Amino acid sequence: MVKQMKEDFQDIQSILQQVLEESAAFFEGMKSRPAALQPPQPQRDVLPSEGLGATVALETFKEVYAPYLSGSAGPRYLGFVTGGSTPAAIAGDWLVSVYDQNVVVTEDSIAAYLEMETINMLKDLFHLPNDYSGSFVSGATMANFVGLALARQWVVHQHGVNISQQGLYDLPRINVVGGALHSSIYKAVSMLGMGKESIHTLPSLPGREATDVSTLEEFLRNNQGEPCIVVANAGTVNTVDFDDIGEIIKLKDKYPFWLHVDAAFGGFAACSPKYIDLIKGMDQADSITIDAHKWLNVPYDSAMQFTRHKHLQVEVFQNNAAYIGDSIQNPEFIHLTPENSRRFRALPAWFTLKAYGKEGYKEVVERNVEMAQLLTERLTNSTFFRLVAPTRLNVVCFTLAIEGVTMDDIKKYLDLLKQDGRVFLTSTMYQGTPAIRAAFSNWGTDENDIEIIWNALSYANGEM
Q1: Is 402 helix (H, G, I), strand (E, B) or coil?
Q2: Is there a domain that residue 45 lies in?
Q3: Which of 134, 149, 172, 445 could make an SS bond with 75 (beta carbons 3.0 to 4.6 A apart)?
Q4: Domain final residue, candidates 343, 376, 397
Q5: DSSP state, residue 304
């Protein structure tokens, strides 16, 4: 046994206490830590000939790297759609590393059963019927990959082919149809061998990012009954706009298509009676993507894929190893996801769902939306900014009130904000206009943060 490893294991309580103290100091300083920063270029790190031991490694990390980590877990990191981590989720995530379970089969641990029960609780949270199955994956990109892999399998079955056995050769192009699709859809289609050119982008309703369903029907009609894949949005990235999933579902009576719903964070509208109508019809989709490290506020990396066609999932992802069971009736997780080795990522979700329940997540969603509206009111009444779209849920999309505003203007402004450190926002392009996104998805963001955010926005504007 390596001497240093043995000594560290014997001293594990002290090491974990030091980690606890560093963690507590991080949370204590969260309010003052820059939401984002430009770190210095560190000197090239070197691999020591003999190990330093865990305590020295921790001290080195605290000195060299820790000061330059962003406050992305805090309440004023509004870039992308980044949730923080609830206290219960953090506790669960720490235990993931302690227990170090590989959740692939049920024969050696209860971990897989816990994942199944967590999926059941999530189905309850999102009002999904019992005929859906689900599993945890690393993020929305991989959840979209799984959903589209099942969709591809369904389409080629209509041609009498099983591509998991025979491949895509000699098959006609599989059409993928949708409106304001997330970039991960393009990435997944590329990885699945269908090609980005197979995607047909439909026009949105005027002034919206929601697909014009009449143009979808026109495409399906012109497709002459060829099976295809329709991707619907339950919350676009720029403006959290929602496709009319209920109306899309009705088209299934006339045309053959698989409906995949990308509800990475918009699916959480289901948590509130105020917003649940936005996802009406989602419970009839063939496959669904929902992210956990966004609005569920669990640590990265975590998302869920749901489907009502589990048999297709086994066909695609079955792991035919002699030392692993291959039951189609009761497939293990190793036969359901791209990963063979899977960390126990359901545990933080289980902890936070148990700790805060339906009412807790209803409150988080409604308060985040309220904070987005408070910022929207400030922007509306300002002469320095203008909204580029209505604030429908938790993302505010706006731009600088500059005649002929350019992306260079936006980037200069956001660089000033990053240097200030009080808030982090990201740029985007909305219907040809360079713009800025403020995404509220952290459980801790409150009215005091809105005041700080507004002061930072105003200060950076004065520096332009």
Answers
A1: coil
A2: no
A3: 445
A4: 343
A5: E
